[in-house]
Amino acid sequence: MEIKYFLVLLFVFLFPFVSSAHYITGYVNDALDSTAANNHEVMLWNYITGGVDNITAVIGPAGSAGVDNVYLIDCELLDTPCKKNDILTLKVYDTGDTYVSKEVNVTVSTFGYDLVENMTLNSPPIFQNTLVDDSFNLTLDEIDLIANSTRKVICSSVVEDLDGDSLISSISSFYSDSSFYSDSDDNNYHYTNNSCEINSSYGNENESLITCSYDIFYYAIPETWNCEIHANDSLSRGLGIDTTSVNPLLSIGVVDSVNFTSQVENVSDEVEIVISNFGNVPIDLSLYGYGSVVDDGLAMDCVGDKDIPIYYKKYNLTSSIFGNLTLEEFESTYENLTSSPVISEFNLNLRQDDFIFEAFKSTYWRIYVPRGISKTCSGNIVFGAVESI
Description:
Number of helices: 2
CATH architecture of the largest domain: Sandwich
Shape: rod-shaped
Low-confidence stretches: 1-18
Structural class: mainly beta
Radius of gyration: 36 Å
Mean pLDDT: 92
């Protein structure tokens, strides 16, 4: 280290004789992660006037010093030129790669130059391995959401700080490819954790474990998602990124039962059945029905000798039709339910409002009661969801 100081002194000793400049010079050690100090920049400012009035200089051969790891700044070039006994502050500042140094001070002398104590390029926190997965944890790099609920997603990373600094804070975002890290939160696209857990007891003395959790709603869109963690020590910041896929979720909600009321040889009053989309994709409907046993050809299984055939239960997926209907009107305005699944266009979008549930749509049903039905009847309608094309 003495040799480095000696070389710097020889280099700057000549300048006071050829100009009125006052040179501030020093040596910047490479970062502990082997990142070179050369081509980074040192900023100098007056301690009293603050950082607005400042000068910068490139470290190394590309700068005024022309020597590896050395910088040279003329403090006379400040807007308020330096003078004897001024206290000047210097640091390596962030030019975009997050490498900085601690601040150091030097007092201006009368010698035409001043030598600053060594600075060291700080190594940002190093993310060794970042992993994001859900609490289900059966398939790596896939998130399986829960219908009409939330799924816990964990993003974690082991972080090493070679300078031995403690991590001060960590924040993270979990966001889809349709979004960006800095976007505001939206349950379809973006989640933020501003207080990730930092376990400084993990691993060796320079390691910490960062854990960030999110409750992801069932309508988070199915595509590639990114977990991005930022961690800060006393001087710099580092980041880790991992990706995963949110899988499509098909799920609907309907009421458990409805009642049709009708006289024999009449069409029933219309019954409204609301369909809710509890998944994360737009859906169409798959519909079929049966009496008491699948594929029995019945709409209703009745007490007595006669049942209601499947084709007498009908639906309309687009509009409600009020009033009493004749059998002919009924058959011309409603679709027959069948014993086998039939996919019908429904175009029910996924939920997109975080505050008001709007992902629902009505279907309309009636049944015709033929002659010979005199007792109570019961049957089943099976609703299924298929992804809209």
